[in-house]
Each structure stands twice: as C-alpha cells, then as structure tokens.
Amino acid sequence: MERLTMWAVVLCLAGCAAGEVVPAGRDVAALRFIGEQRIAWKAQFQGTTIGGLSGIDYDAANGSWILASDDRSATNPARFYRATLRFTPSSFDAVELTAVRYFRQGDGSTYPVEHERAQAGGVVADIESARIDPRDGTIWYTSEGDGRLGLDPFLRQADAAGLLRAELPLPASLREWPGHERGVRNNLNLEGLSFAPDGASLWLALEAPLVEDGLPPTLDHGAPARITHLDRAGKVLAQYAYPIGAIPARPGNGMAADTGISEILATGPRTLLVLERSAVQGDEGRYRNHIRLYEADLRQASDIRGVPALAGATFAPAAKRLVLDFAALGLPMLDNVEGFAFGPPLPNGHATLVFVTDDNFSKRQVTQLLLFEVLPP
Description:
Order of helices and strands: EEEEEEEEEEEEEEEEEEEEEE
Strand content: 35-45%
Structural class: mainly beta
Strand order of the largest sheet: 1-22-21-20
Shape: globular
Distance between the termini: 17 Å
Largest sheet: 4 strands, antiparallel
C-alpha cells in the first residue's frame, strides 16, 4: 500500500472479518450487490415512528438485527428496534421489525426531549452507532451530545432491554471544551463504533477533525479524523489519523456541502472498513449523497495519542484503499448511509454486509437497507 503523509489522500483497500460472524483475517476483494429493501416514511411500529436509523448490527446469538435511531427523543424517546432480515444469495426479500426498546438512563427513565434537557441535568442522546457485544450480547452505543449546550458525547453500554449498564470514560480530547477552542466539533464527533474481532477492545471514530487538528474537508483538500482504540475499561490503547477525502462535488450557489466518516467496522487487529459519506446541496436545495467504502490499514500509521494537535504536525496516517463507490450501483436513489454491519454467511460461506440509511424523518429522503455479498480474493 502506498503510504500517505500529513493528510493527503490515496484511495486503497483490502481485508475483512468481524467477530462471531466473519472469521478474523478474511479479505474483502469486492462486494456483490444483492438487493434493497425500504421502510416507508414515518411508518409506525408499536407506538413509535420509524426513522433516523443511524446504527445497525447483527446479533449472532439469536439471528436478529438491531437498528438504532438517532431521534433525539423529539419524536419518540431514544430507542432501537429488533428486526429480522430475510434474504437469499439472489434476493433481499423482507425486513420485519419484531420489537422496539428504549435506551434508559441510570434511574431507568428514557432520555429527555429537548425542552426537558436542562431539568434533566444536561443529558442528550444523539445515537449514531450501536454494536452488539460479542462476549455477552449487551448493546454499546455512542451519542454525539450537543456542542451548542456544552453536553459531552458519550459511549454507554445497555442490556438487551435498553437499561443502562455502564459508561466508558472518554479521553479529554474527545470531549466538549467550554469555549470550543479545541476538542470535538458539534454534530461532527462520535460517529463510528466497532468491536475488535476478538471482542477484547473497541474502536471509536470521529466524523471530522478535532478543532486543533485543522479544518474539515473542503473541495480542495481532505482532512484527518482521529480513530481511537480503547480497551473495555476505556483505556486508550492507540490513536490514528484517518485521511478523509475532499468534498467530491461542488454545491450550488450559496448551498452547503460536507464529508466525513459515518461508520467503521473492524476487520482485523489493525484494519477497519470505513464508510465516508458526503452530502452536497444542489441549486434547488436538495442534497445528493456520495458514499464510498474504504478499508483503512493502520499497521504503518503513527500512534498519535500523544500528539496534541495534528495541524502542522508530521505523522503517518492510515493507508486506505477503495472497496466500493456506491455510485457504481446505479440505484434510482442513494440516501444518507449511516450504518453497516456484517451479517450471517450465505450458503457458500461468504459473509454478508448490510447498510442502512438515516432519512432524518424527512419526506424527501428514504430509509434503505442495502445487502451485499462479501467476495474473498
């Protein structure tokens, strides 16, 4: 793999494996698209509105999936769904929701809605990723917090019913700073979460650079986002710089565009699949999504946990290689892909990979689940 310096970007990729579902060390040569399922806009299930699906994972112990919503308790309390996905090697046939569970705080209450946050002691759940613990079946989830209110992001563990079990301490660099002169950016922080294939540690990915690490990506250049390796008690084992690509298309006049990491998935001791998502607003105000899946190879990357600011520093970032540009699928619509996970193997032994989109509860968007076969070398 070609090495990268500073935060220049080279498109590269290789390997794949995930815990109980895919044997560690299995390479990903390519992905074969099998099919798509959609959930209708504002579909109702057990008294809740389905939407904002930002996290997905497969529970190998019982053959079900979890789908976590990033609803900040505005529509319904912060929650996750259990689901059954039915598919064959040639078709994606159905998505059936089977249960909904609410994430709970330490006192057993659900997370508060926006106007109740101050009375609730300054807590907000903006859940961007959720993973099944391969060791005990509990659920770990990240929240981006709220930088406008000075509320920290967090990483918490819940039981299968959503009851709070634990919260891991985060390093100071991943927390909010009162004056926002350093630390995480609002709504651009804890976005990706994955267990290592052996379940002994976790990986956390920021969506964008820390303030002290430089500006987010632009049309002209990419930027480094920190990916942190933690043990199960929250001790930082290592930290690496992942080079996010530049914004891939020019927005309309006066319109917005951004790009960053939306999810990660460990495939080996030092390799991760990384989902880069870009949203580019056209002249008419609609966003077009540009989605690319890479594998990051950290084996030759610098451990930057002791580097206070990446801006101006010299370091070796992760190497990366492109696995899939979703534009190549030719889908009639490609929405805001936010989560992905390995699923059960197909009859030929090949792993499956499922992606989910966050519709932001918008009528202009859709909730999609996209199914792939993982093709080995």
